[in-house]
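Hi, here's the filled form for the chain we discussed.

Project: internal
Contact: R.S.
Residues: 491
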Amino acid sequence: MPRIYSYYIVLVLLCLSGKAYGQLSGHLLKSYGEDGIATLELPTDEEAQIVGLAALKDGRNMVMAEVKQGGETWTLISRQYPFGQLDEDFGLGGWLWLDEFNQASEILALPDGGCLIWGQGKGSDDFDLMMVKLTSSGNVDANFGSEGKVLLDFNTNEYPRDIQVLPDGRIRCIGECYNWVIQSAELLVAGLMPDGTMDPTFGFGGTRRIKINGALRWTDLKVKSPENLWISGIAREKQKEAPMVVCLDENGLADYRFAEKGIWVGQTGFDRIHRLQLDFDQKNIWLAASTKTLVDPQYDYDVFRLSKDGRQDTILRNAYSGQYGHDILEAFWIQDDEKLCIAGRSGRMAEVVRMLPNGTLDKGYGAQGRCLLPVGNRRLILDRTQEGNIVVWGQNQQEVSGVRIQGDPELEAYKDKLAAPVEVNLDFPFISVALSKQAGIWEVEFNHATWQFAWGHAQLIHCFQEGRFVASRQLSNQKQVASEGVYRLGE
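And the returned structure, exactly as it came back:
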């Protein structure tokens, strides 16, 4: 294991909501950590590049970083509770060091609390695609593949791109390799069973190797249904770049119902496309990217709307230009089946931008449609929880930082809790507090640490030791105690 030192990870919780939280939308939640910021110490003195993030279904998240030291590459993984505290039950005191990967690319949460890590590892004679499975306790799962890992060898140097898990637990992953004959990036696709063995129903023995002339690089994989895989990439023609989407059926073959024989290539005219990503709503396929041209040499966000059959497309050119210029896309997703969300870097600032389907800013979010993130802007990675929350991490040269953003829960889901004065759930490891619909400010105290909330703002408070609980409501100049007592973890 590398020598141990420390620098800090900073986490911040933001509220992305425009429904349940009203005026709190797009602003820091001061209840997170200390005045909205929680910190973790990263146990290394070497510069670490954050490369992956996985949000578990119970609200915890895992952050993956790559550390190079002494000619060796280490993969460092930590797990945190939803409010930023280090989960010391994971790995060794909350940290796990892996030396299997030459390059770790993606980390994906599994329903059982474990995760899959997708990357590049050393094969017998070259670098192969590699997958490792971890259990919920942070151990390599020896029942997966061969002693916890799977090597995929396409007889060349392969580079990992993305990974997804189907509803039935089967795994789909993509990578690429460069074909010098056709001077294009070949798309490498693999299908695995939940135990890490090859899926015999997919491709040819579990793999596909797809050659498309002009393919420059492959970027993103989405599973819209068990029947189809959607893969985004970037094509190059006559020194210009264009977005590209490939649709494969459940057997890994091109779905000819989509566009031209399963392949859509958008309009060219871009000198550079950066970090193209895709997502869906009920009617359309959406792609977002940072693009630039000779006329405008700085990157701007462009959004592409594509019909499900791939035969009609629209571009929202310069859909959003950041306040600080040079906008680099890092993540893109569709929220509430209609709102377009972009996380990226604008100049020296990191931000989340939310737009309506016509490309205009959603003025009900943050400061006129945008929210600045108090994190590093060198790199951003993002994942979404099952509850609609969003976790974003960023990095500067010597600082890794992150934000936790709460999504748009429907008010209906909180109706039963908001009707009660106070509701307390003492299930380990957290206490859940629901506030009254009555006007006023609620004040909730746990062991002399106090949080204040406006009415209607349901909130989850995490605690890790026994202590005293007091919930009171400030109404005019009176403070009414609604509930108090001693709580014991595990009750």
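Let me know if anything looks off before we file it.
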